[in-house]
Amino acid sequence: MIIILPFQQVINLAITVISTSDIHVNSDASKLNYNHHSETDYIPLCYSSDKVTLHDCDIEYDSQISCPSHLNSGLAPVVLKQIINTNNLEIEELISLVDNGETETLLAQIHQNEEPERIKNALESASPYLSDRVLLAAIKEKPKPLPPDILKEIIISNSPVTDTVMSALNTLKLPEDIQQQIQEVQTGTSARAELEQQISYIESQKGIAENDLMRQYLNDTTINGIDSVIAYLETQRDLINKKQLVQAYLVANQCEKAKILLGQLPQENNEDINFYNFYNLLTDLCVSEKTYFELTSAQEQTVREIAESETSVSVNAQAILSLVYNEKFPEVIEELKFIIDLRNAPQQGENLGDNITKQIQFVKIYPNPAENTITIELSAELDNKNISVEIYNYLGQKIIFYNFAGNLLNTLDVSDLSNGIYIFKILVGNKIIAREKVVIEK
Known about the structure:
The structure is a single chain. This protein is of the alpha+beta class. Helices cover about 40% and strands about 15% of the residues. It has 15 helices and twelve strands. Helix 10 packs parallel to helix 12 (about 270-285).
């Protein structure tokens, strides 16, 4: 489930926040909404405006309530469901504007080589929201290419177009005057891009409501939380929630339901295929009442292949290999293509990686795997700092909070934790300085 909340620093495969007022997004990254707090310090000043849409939450930052583990909208589950349903309707309505909801019909007209004027009328009626798929088909896939003047009108009606579409156009030998007319309108933001930003924003609001709902269910001690999660997910039709339902069934030990639903999911790309392979293996273990420690050689090989697949389930497969075989996997972060922020540039004689190395050396957590106790050793640079640790389980729930009260050598009792993988976050004040996966194995 995706949640986009007010935040100060983000690092993922395509985004970095250099400071609270700088965001750099790689050119091949997806568009995103950045929800920020209302104080000036938290409003980005420099950011990739073609990729990032700012939204003021009109909320002041508060370390006690502004983090997901503390966030509580105060809305009852029935109200959250209403918000989610309204968001779904809004999203469906907006998505239907793309290609007038007739993508396959438009593609068929292009591929069947209908008369240029007829194709033009059909595409113009769906403008300015033509998808790249349809635009690329009009440029490259019509058996008898569209005349340059007709193609020009279609492109101009949907401009500015994406780099992908412009690259395809550049492969054609269009007359210079037509090329110039097309180039002149490649400024600003297209209607379709604005539509996609609107859809993305509503999806982020839906995600916030869904996360709030899931937290309330899982934290409610008067009900069986996972049953409520399942009941909600069973009403959802989108692929993301269906994949989450497979996982929820497994958590509830409803193995057969997980296997049936898994078999109904599409396997159209590498991401889908690896998701299927991973959770098919887990459902097999669930049905046979076996554990990760009882993998067959074929199952172990499947886990290893998934671990190397660079898909969303790779980290899950790596976690199993860490738990069962005590193997270590480096945290892989795509190198960002940004200009060095001169305010934090290395000094003369200092390498760019030196600051990173210093941060890594701030904290040592051992042993790992652990049984009953864990030692967290802090470097001298953290003396007299407000240091704390937060421990999260695999559901993302914070289960332990401990303040070190200035001690550099700290021993935590984890005897009450069950076997599994936990995330330890070390904080200086409200800033995370270290994050470590720790295996509890007894």
